[in-house]
């Protein structure tokens, strides 16, 4: 203020400061007015904050968690790993060539442990989880909510491609969680994830369905139809339930994107519904198989084959003894229709075959040498 008086005089300095305060006040009011309404903000006349999500009562999520948590389990696994190592002094290609492995150290055994989640689907002890949680386990233990002693568990059925497994423990009258309909869930719907991330039992996170039908490749698995959610999913959550606001399982938490935040994936419950009986009763799932390796048609291939466009799936190879071979399909054929469904790319044909019941007869229309041909193939189990 003294500096302003020096340059502008007392009245001018006071007017300048008054104007600046007015601008700041107006700017703050505008910014405050532009803030979105927060559900936890105190409403006029309410006198308290609730901490609830938009459109939900204060007790919705706590009630769901309280209801289903007893059926969410922790899964601990152990695996014996035997290793043999070359003595460091002879870790040289020259010595290996002449002396072979006679200088290897004795076989060493170590125990590898794993952690995952799961949930009870029947009162007599059947538990659903991810196949990758128990795939290489020598021992499996299941710990129920509120119980200190784990149950030894047996793997009843598993499928690598679907990444699903069913375990069985010797217990009765257990709490269960029902499977819901993932086909009816919408992008933006609220979901709840429960699991044991990093060994922290029964951790609850909340988010929404971010997308449906996501294809995700991870190591040796190619997931085709995952739910994407921003509910936090971390190591140890695998196999746990993703729930809708009815307390039904709409997904099995499976994977996270390590390079991003707020991106997790779950196997839809509709996939589970179609195979769970086979996993329990047969121990495996029959995958429909046509027996062809496919290639995308580009402009060069279309021109070489004399095709009118790039639609269709080019057969690059036919497996020996496969349904395709038995039906007469050959390398170089272009499949353009499968059981009345137009085929524009290999993925469409692959998806249609995967949805065909084993034993079904299907009509396949294809182009060979510029001519349209049709064959009937019987889909077999892979």
Task: Explain how this protein is built.
With 382 residues, the chain is α+β, with helices and mostly antiparallel strands. The chain has three domains: 72-168, Thrombin, subunit H, CATH 2.40.10.10; 182-272, Thrombin, subunit H; 288-381, Pdz3 Domain. It is 23% helix and 34% strand. It contains nine helices and 21 strands. The strands form four sheets. It has a seven-stranded antiparallel sheet with strand order 5-4-1-2-3-7-6. Strands 8-9-10-13-12-11 form a six-stranded antiparallel beta barrel. Strand 2 (108-120) and strand 3 (126-129) form a beta hairpin. Helix 1 crosses helix 2 (10-34). The radius of gyration is 30 Å and the shape is globular. 28% of the residues are buried. Mean pLDDT is 82; it is low at 2-51.
Notable traits:
alpha+beta; 9 helices; Pdz3 Domain; Thrombin, subunit H; 21 strands; 382 residues; globular; disordered N terminus
Spell out the blueprint of helices and strands.
Elements: H1 2-8, H2 10-34, H3 60-68, E1 72-83, H4 93-99, E2 108-120, E3 126-129, H5 131-134, E4 139-143, E5 151-152, E6 154-159, E7 164-168, E8 190-195, E9 203-218, E10 221-229, E11 241-243, E12 249-256, E13 264-268, H6 269-281, E14 288-289, E15 292-295, H7 299-305, E16 313-318, H8 323-327, E17 334-338, E18 341-342, H9 346-354, E19 361-368, E20 371-378, E21 380-381
Antiparallel strand pairs: 1-2, 1-4, 2-3, 3-7, 4-5, 6-7, 8-9, 8-11, 9-10, 10-13, 11-12, 12-13, 14-21, 15-16, 16-17, 17-18, 17-19, 19-20
